[in-house]
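<goal> How does this chain fold?
<body> The protein record starts here
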Amino acid sequence: MKKAFMKTIMAGPKGNKFPGDSVKVSGDKDPLIAGGFATYETAMAASADEFRATASGDDITSALDLLDTGNDEHWTAKGLPALSAMRELTGDVKLSRHDINAATPDFERQ
């Protein structure tokens, strides 16, 4: 089954509350596609560009160095860097756990 993510331009049938929310689009029977609001191709284009982090590996490494090991808000319960802290430090709201792991696969709170 085809799957993609896209941003909406209005609240709609997928449970998005605000314009600009991200929603998963899955196949031709998806209400957004079946209703003529989107095509799978536009959803795939959005997935490729809109949801990609812009922080480099160096940006991520620098942000990790700024985390405070004594501040629990900077860490998850598993000792991983909190996404909210990393997004703030890198200035990249699209930064994901995958991006952090790709830059520093074994990093954890000391």
User: Anything to note?
Assistant: Residues 40-50 form the longest helix (11 residues).
